[in-house]
């Protein structure tokens, strides 16, 4: 394959993975029949708007429900709204929560509390819901929650550690939304964006029992060297902020189903590559760790490939992290992975790689125009040299977005309205 063919295959493969996880594909078959009373749809996350759109269409067309029996609210990331008539859609901040998410969460809790025994509370949960639904515990304000979120994101903490803290500083996370809806029946349909598809981690588990504790939240802050604001420390010392456990009455009539998971996107990626005549080696479906370190490991595998008789692709999923060391850098784990790969493969020919977040945004400031990741190859190195750019310098500054803006290698998909974590594909077709 020539460079253009490699890049085209990579993009086609990534798009196939994203399409496999779209709510339009995975949600309808799992939507439950309506109860005697109302269907109250409460959706959140980057796919929240799409989930609300699909659910509304399903109940209108299949059961003929009108606005007297079908209502709800979806809170999604800015730029991810979808058109609906009866289910309100609100755009809010991600990854740092904002005032729109604060109001959206308050309205969500109020809708849940309005549910009666004959109603169904249908929670449609997707990645990003932790930031979109922000309801600070007593004694905390939005500014403190924002500062805590930023500090955790900069620390390199994995999503389960971040969400452990979030769940103990919230009135909606960690099972509390189910508590608000009790005694109504609660059915949660989730699109997983976390390794191992843990229900208590997806969007911080608003409708399921929480296995983590206040002590775990304190330990997470200590482990990642995040000094808590005094109000946060006080909240984490208050037993009233312990999250609901499995014996809580809130979960007596609650069901949880994962309707799509990262493995589904990975399977679509593998099939697309194999159909193109590529040998696929899955090097990790649920990878975690520092993006630059994982890139170094994958580069070592590439350099060790010899005697190839057909193209080979290293495929991986999961969610990597970035520990911020630079002062003014921009970028997320997919771009940092790609930049580190460029640095480690600067003298290797005939390769290309794509690293992207399936939601369409990798790091960034919360804008719909943020890059989803990057597509890189040997030509990236040549363009960098021509512009006098040193990948190592940009890595040190955590400025992968700046580097790829200069080389033109950013991956821009726009909002995808789903989120099943990251996909990385390293394609090698060196002659044997």
UniProtKB/TrEMBL annotation:
One annotated GO molecular function: glycerate kinase activity
Residue intervals of the MOFRL-associated domain: 10-236
Signal peptide location: none
Gene3D superfamilies documented for this protein: Glycerate kinase, MOFRL-like N-terminal domain (3.40.50.10180), MOFRL domain (3.40.1480.10)
One GO CC annotation: cytoplasm
Domain MOFRL stretches: 313-422
Superkingdom of the organism of origin: Bacteria
Annotated protein name in UniProt: Hydroxypyruvate reductase
Organism per entry: Methylopila turkensis
């Amino acid at each position: 394959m020539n460079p253009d063919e490699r890049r085209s295959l990579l993009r086609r493969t990534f798009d196939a993975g994203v399409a496999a996880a779209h709510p339009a594909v995975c949600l309808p078959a799992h939507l439950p029949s309506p109860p005697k009373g109302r269907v109250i749809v409460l959706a959140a996350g980057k796919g929240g708007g799409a989930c609300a759109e699909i659910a509304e269409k399903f109940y209108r067309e299949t059961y003929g429900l009108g606005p007297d029996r079908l209502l709800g609210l979806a809170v999604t990331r800015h730029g991810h709204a979808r058109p609906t008539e009866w289910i309100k859609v609100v755009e809010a901040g991600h990854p740092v929560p904002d005032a729109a998410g604060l109001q959206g969460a308050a309205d969500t809790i109020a809708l849940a509390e309005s549910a009666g025994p004959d109603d169904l509370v249908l929670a449609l949960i997707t990645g990003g819901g932790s930031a979109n639904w922000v309801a600070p515990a007593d004694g905390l304000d939005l500014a403190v929650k924002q500062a805590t979120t930023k500090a955790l994101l900069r620390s390199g903490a994995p999503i389960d550690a971040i969400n452990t803290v979030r769940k103990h500083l919230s009135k909606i996370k960690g099972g509390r939304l189910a508590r608000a809806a009790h005694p109504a029946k609660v059915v949660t349909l989730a699109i997983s964006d976390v390794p191992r598809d843990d229900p208590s981690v997806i969007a911080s588990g608003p409708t399921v029992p929480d296995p983590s504790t206040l002590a775990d939240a304190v330990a997470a802050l200590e482990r990642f060297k995040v000094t808590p604001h005094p109000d946060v420390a006080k909240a984490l010392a208050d037993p009233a902020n312990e999250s609901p456990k499995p014996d809580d009455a809130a979960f007596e009539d609650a069901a949880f189903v994962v309707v799509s998971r990262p493995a589904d996107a990975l399977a679509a990626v593998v099939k697309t590559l194999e159909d193109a005549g590529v040998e696929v080696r899955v090097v990790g479906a649920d990878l975690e760790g520092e993006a630059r370190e994982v890139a170094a490991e994958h580069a070592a595998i590439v350099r060790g490939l010899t005697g190839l008789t057909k193209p080979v692709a290293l495929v991986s999923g999961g969610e990597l992290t970035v520990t911020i060391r630079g002062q003014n850098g921009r970028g997320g784990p997919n771009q940092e992975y790609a930049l580190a790969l460029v640095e480690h493969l600067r003298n290797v020919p005939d390769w290309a790689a794509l690293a992207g977040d399936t939601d369409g945004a990798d790091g960034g400031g919360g804008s719909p125009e943020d890059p989803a990741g990057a597509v890189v190859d040997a030509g990236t190195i040549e363009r960098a040299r021509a512009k006098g750019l040193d990948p190592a310098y940009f890595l040190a500054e955590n400025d992968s977005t700046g580097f790829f803006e200069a080389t033109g290698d950013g991956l821009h998909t726009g909002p995808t309205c789903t989120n099943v974590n990251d996909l990385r594909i390293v394609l090698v077709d060196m002659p044997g």
